[in-house]
Each structure stands twice: as C-alpha cells, then as structure tokens.
Amino acid sequence: MDKFKPEFTCQRTVLQEHCDFADRMRPAALLHAVQQVGTDHCNAIGMTPAFYKEHHMAFLLAKQVLEIYRTPTLGETLTYMTRPETPRRAIYKRLHRIEDEAGLPVAEVDSRWVLVDVETRRILRHMPKEMNLCAWPEPIDEELSLTIAKAAEMEAPVEQVARYSLCDQNGHLNNASWLDVLCDALPLEQIQAAPLCRAAINYHWEVPMGHEFTLSRGRVERGWYLNGQRDGRCCIEAELDF
Asked: Could you tell me the pLDDT band of residue 121, with boundaries at 50, 70 and 90?
C-alpha cells in the first residue's frame, strides 16, 4: 500500500500489558490500539461522544480483517496511520496501517462500519447533514480480503459468557476483545507454535455483558473457523490463520 495517505497518525509503544507469554503483542491488543486511534481521529475532527449523543447516532462495526506481516514485540514504538473514506451504500470503510521504527509495515486493518440511529436501531442509508462538518475523503482503492473460509466439520460448541473484563462502555462484548475470546478458544499448542498472521471477523449480533453464548471451531486450510451463537442466532464468525 505504497499509495496509502494517512489522514491521522500517532505513535504508541508496546507495553507489557499488551503482550503474551513470548513478549509478542497480542492480536487483540493490536485491534484495541487501532480502535483507539480511530476514536482519536474522530474526536480530532469533531465527532466526539457528545456529537454522537446529540444526534442520536452511533457507528457499529460490521466486519474487519487484520493482517500481520511481523508480530510487534515488547518495547517497540509503532506508528499508526488511519484513513476513512466517504460512505458507499451505507458502508463506511476505514483503513489502518501500522509501521515499525524503520518505517516498515508490520500490520494492516480494513474495517467496515455502519451508522445507526440509536433510538430506532435503523441503519442510516445516507450521511446525515450533521456530519458535513467532516471532510470525508474520496473512496479508497486499497482494501484487504474480508473473505472467511468455513469449516466442513465443527467441534461441539463450548459455553461462554460476556464477562465484565471483555465489555466496553456500550455494555456489550467489545469488538477488539472478541479476538482474545477467539484465540482462547483455540488449542493452546496452536498459539504456542506460531503467531497469528490473519484474522477476519464478521460481527453479526452484539452480546450484552453477562449474557451467555456458545463458540464452536473447525479446521480450515490455513487455520481455524469459529462460529458464535447467542439464543440460536449467529453473533460472530471468524477465520484465524497462522
């Protein structure tokens, strides 16, 4: 993505709290950092929590893919660049690129969002006039593959709970924290053998704090397919590759 032109850039250091047993940055910690950088960008252009509250709007993450080219490690200073595009068919795309201190890419994230009316829960098909305060860039040509390979056979589902430590200010299981849940659902020897190189996630239905859901897994060519169910309805599906 040599033509990537960041709209917002910041630097962050990989701390111990972000790392796993091998001092590697956890994939979920990387998504949490990306999530915060996107929020910081919105705040910088006037789309603050107060703005959303005043206009009864909220962005919901529909799907995203994380590609890791080299796993960051403890103590590294990373540069995060993020760029959104003007919406197309009610979908808002945001790209993130993460570089190391040498300027080499270590990871990229492609996320797709929808804007909803929090009172009616309806998707806003057209950009509200209140958002004209933002200079939305033109469509971005670059994108990552959002495809998810599904497993032919699935293991028995395991019961899970959207625990306090996994949930955010919206009162449901956080988008980035889901990746910790998904990694925890894999065989430990898989995580120990090699770091994650790709995670594609579709968020179908939120799971409120304290609610139960089930998670099942199945092997695919490059890793694992995972499917979460809540009250008989798919709440999440993902492919994790190693």
From this structure: confident
